[in-house]
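Per-residue structure
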Amino acid sequence: MESNPGNLKSSMFGGFKKKDVLSYIFEINESSQEAQQKFAEQLDEVTRSRDEMRYAVSELEARLRGMQAEMDEALRNLNLEQAKRLEAEEMLEKLKYDVQKREIAFKEKENALNETSAQLLEFKSKRQELQDEREQVELAASEERTFCPDYFLNALLTDFYERATRSLVSMDVFVEPGFHIERVKDSDVGVVMGNLLDNALEAARPHPQGFVDVKLYMQNGGAFAVIRIENNYVGGMDVIEDSATKKEPRDGIHGLGLKIVNQVVEKYGGHVHRDCSDDSYVTAVILPTKTGS
């Protein structure tokens, strides 16, 4: 209710009527209450709006902090990924460098292997050429070589000469003109010569300068035929007395063959002499050319 001071009329109390004054005061008081109530309602509305705004701001700040944390985590992960990528790139560069080094080393080894293979092929070719040339020389020499006029003895000496050559053992053969052992059977000559030359060749083969020296000659005006075989050897060799041969090599390998040689020689009235020095071994077979010599 709006006050209307114009309605107040003067009275005897200060120029206004009491009733009008009280009515006016009531109106003012009522208006003030209404204004206070509106203000209170507006204040409540403002307070609610402020609280809602504060809550919204808090939520927004929380969301912003969460987003910031997520961004920080994403940045850390990005930095880690970048560091890993850089590390991987560095490792890749090292691997590339190692691969290049290995390729270079492999190429060098391949070139060296190819060079070695070429040298090996050349060596094999030259060795084959030398072998073919040696075989041709040996063939020509075997066709032309004649140690003595006795066909069987010459064939025996030629065979052992070729075996010695293949074994890289130097073999010298001397047959005196006029040498003959007709009273000895060819089979017995083969036993004696075969065993003695076998033993000599086997003993000389391991020696770096192995040699076998064979001499066939007559003695005492042709009364005796001598077969002398000398060879070098590697290792030790003892000579002991033997009742049948006077001297016997203690090698433990050819004992049986040497005893057979002794038996054959004794059958024709001959004897075997053996001598061993520090660097050579000599066997001499002495056979009478006539019965009763």
